[in-house]
Write a structure and sequence with these properties.
The complex is a heterodimer of chains A (67) and B (400).
Chain A (H helix, E strand, L loop, with lengths): L1 E5 L9 H5 L4 E3 L5 E3 L10 H10 L5 E5 L2
Antiparallel strand pairs in A: 1-4, 2-3
Chain B lengths: L18 H5 L1 H11 L2 E4 L5 E4 L2 H9 L4 E2 L29 H9 L5 H5 L2 H15 L4 E3 H6 L1 H11 L6 H13 L5 H6 L2 H16 L5 H6 L2 E2 L2 E2 L2 H32 L1 H9 L4 H11 L5 E5 L3 E3 L2 E3 L4 E4 L1 H4 L34 H18 L3 E3 L6 E2 L7 E3 L1 E4 L2
Parallel strand pairs in B: 2-10
Antiparallel strand pairs in B: 1-2, 3-7, 4-14, 5-6, 7-10, 8-9, 11-14, 12-13
Helix pairs in contact in B: 6-8, 6-17, 8-13, 9-13, 11-13, 13-14, 13-17
Classes of the chains: A alpha+beta (67), B alpha+beta (400).
Protoporphyrin IX containing FE (HEM) binds next to helix 4, helix 8, helix 13 and helix 17 of chain B.
Chain lengths: 67, 400
């Protein structure tokens, strides 16, 4: 299964992840992005997840395969 | 402003306040990117101009060797003793101080806080288009775009909207009066600070539910901000928030006026708006920032000297073909768009969520009222000078 994760050290709160994929990411009180829960990417949302990775200006969003 | 000599050689003697640059900087940047990617000029006491995406990002990230002490290029550099705080934190601050100054502002400008301001912003945009009804020719920059950000920020701060002209005069002086002698440069800032002092003191005596009171209650370095520190934060929000957003709204409407196919598509497919907003921000990014070189060094073959300026033209990075396919085309539904309109790294625009909301609401309201419009006179369009670029005169013919 695919999972997304926001690296909090790199995130600067551009918000491109939660704008592109509100089902997968949410903003915290400072506007930084966080994956929702453990970040699982349900079937059908892979493209959205890829867009979040590709549009984060800081390269803070990663997607990886987990077992 | 006509205070400088005209530019003949953009690689060795550029001036970012030149009329040719103001009219069309893209041609200059495209040429430099392929012939001399880091240009240099002796003007303003020495200034560098990287034009590639890669170089702009590298310098924005390199807060060790490049200081934000002064971010608007002029003949005046903030003295080194002011680092790491600078004259207008957090934009003028370097690590480690920067982070705490920024933290004061982040919650107020978070997506959630900004969403709450959307209805009042929409009502105001609707009021503006209502006032323009019945006119054949409307100046979308002067009669529409310029009013939106001033009103929103004045309300957030708790300052009277009726003082908007004064705020705009101050911002214009700071951003475009960069060739003035230092005495005039400083003198031009005094009236706003005198004015703010009165409002801040009044807020200190009788706290309100607004940003000025919140700033008075904020702590940096374990102590409350004083009146002067609150005033300079307010001044920063005016400088950073008004001309920038005005420019983004104006440039977007300008694009739609000259590109009927895009205009019609946005009217027909309103769900395209979020992607279109990012694309318009990429293609017409209004803001170029600057840094000061900390110490003499060789930077990728460029002999940089301490206190040299380095311009960070985010708009040029956004047009770099190495980073974007069809970089000079506006593709409203561009999916992969890692643009730098709001900067990159620790100084990412604190107001980006607000600016996006204002731009979205402003375009939606404009298109709902005027689905069909064109440039009334292409030669009458006038662009601002300097580091914030947007139309200041934009006469449009409205077709009913
Ligand atoms: C479309 C409109 C806007 C654009 C394109 C824009 C662009 C930028 C850019 C490029 C930076 C980075 C500065 C740097 O790297 O030195 C920045 C910083 C900043 N902006 Fe904006 N801005 C906009 C609107 C606003 C608004 C509406 C506000 C608030 C009212 C605002 C407040 C700030 C602040 C406080 C900073 C400093 C952040 C820091 O240094 O940590 N901006 N902006
Ligand atoms: S897009 Fe990147 S920087 Fe922006 S909030 Fe998401 S993770 Fe953070």
């Amino acid at each position: 299964m695919m999972k997304v994760h926001v690296d909090q050290d790199r995130c600067q709160g551009h918000g491109r992840c939660y704008l592109a994929a509100p089902e997968l990411f949410a903003a915290d009180d400072l506007g930084n992005g966080r994956e929702i829960g453990a970040g699982p990417v349900p079937a059908g949302l892979e493209h959205q997840a890829q867009l979040a990775v590709a549009n984060c200006p800081e390269g803070a969003v990663a997607m990886e395969e987990t077992s | 402003m006509g205070l400088h000599d005209r530019v003949a050689d953009w690689a060795k003697d550029f001036d970012h306040t030149d009329e040719v640059w103001a009219a069309d900087p893209y041609a200059i940047w495209d040429e430099l990117r392929s012939t001399c990617p880091v240009a240099h000029s002796e003007r303003y006491g020495g200034v560098w101009l990287p034009t590639r995406h890669e170089d702009v990002v590298a310098i924005a990230y390199d807060t060790e060797r490049f200081s934000s002490r002064s971010v608007v290029v002029s003949k005046f550099r903030a003295p080194i003793e002011l680092a790491p705080v600078g004259t207008a934190p957090p934009i003028s601050s370097d690590p480690p101080f920067h982070k705490q100054a920024r933290k004061v502002l982040l919650p107020v400008f978070s997506p959630r806080a900004i969403a709450a301001l959307e209805p009042s912003t929409r009502a105001y945009c609707e009021e503006l288009v209502e006032q323009l009804r019945g006119r054949d020719v409307v100046d979308a920059a002067a009669d529409y775009a310029q009013h939106i950000p001033v009103r929103v920020i004045a309300n957030m701060l708790g300052l009277p909207e009726s003082d908007a002209d004064m705020f705009r005069r101050f911002v214009h002086h700071v951003l475009e009066g960069v060739s003035l002698p230092i005495e005039e440069r400083v003198a031009g800032m005094v009236p706003l600070f005198d004015y703010l002092q009165g409002h801040i003191t009044a807020h200190a005596d009788a706290p309100q539910n607004d940003l000025i009171s919140l700033l008075l209650d904020s702590e940096v370095d374990g102590r409350k901000l004083d009146v002067f520190e609150v005033a300079r934060t307010i001044a920063l929000l005016l400088i950073a928030g008004i001309d920038t957003t005005w420019s983004a709204i104006g440039a977007s409407i300008w694009h739609l006026a000259r590109t009927p196919a895009d205009r019609d598509r946005l009217v027909a497919e309103p769900e395209l708006m979020p992607k279109a907003i990012e694309e318009l921000l990429r293609a017409y990014a209004p803001v170029t920032m600057a840094r000061l070189v900390k110490e003499d060094m060789d930077w990728n073959g460029c002999p940089m000297k301490a206190d040299d300026w380095v311009l960070l033209p985010f708009p040029s990075a956004n047009r770099d073909p190495a980073a974007f396919a069809d970089a000079d085309d506006v593709v409203l539904d561009r999916e992969v768009n890692r643009h730098l309109a709001f900067g990159v790294g620790i100084h990412r625009c604190v107001g980006s969520h607000l600016a996006r909301m204002e731009l979205t609401v402003a375009l939606q309201t404009w298109l709902a009222a005027y689905p069909d419009f064109e440039l009334a006179d292409a030669d009458a369009v006038r662009w601002s000078e300097g580091q914030v670029r947007g139309p200041r005169a934009l006469p449009l013919r409205i077709r009913a």
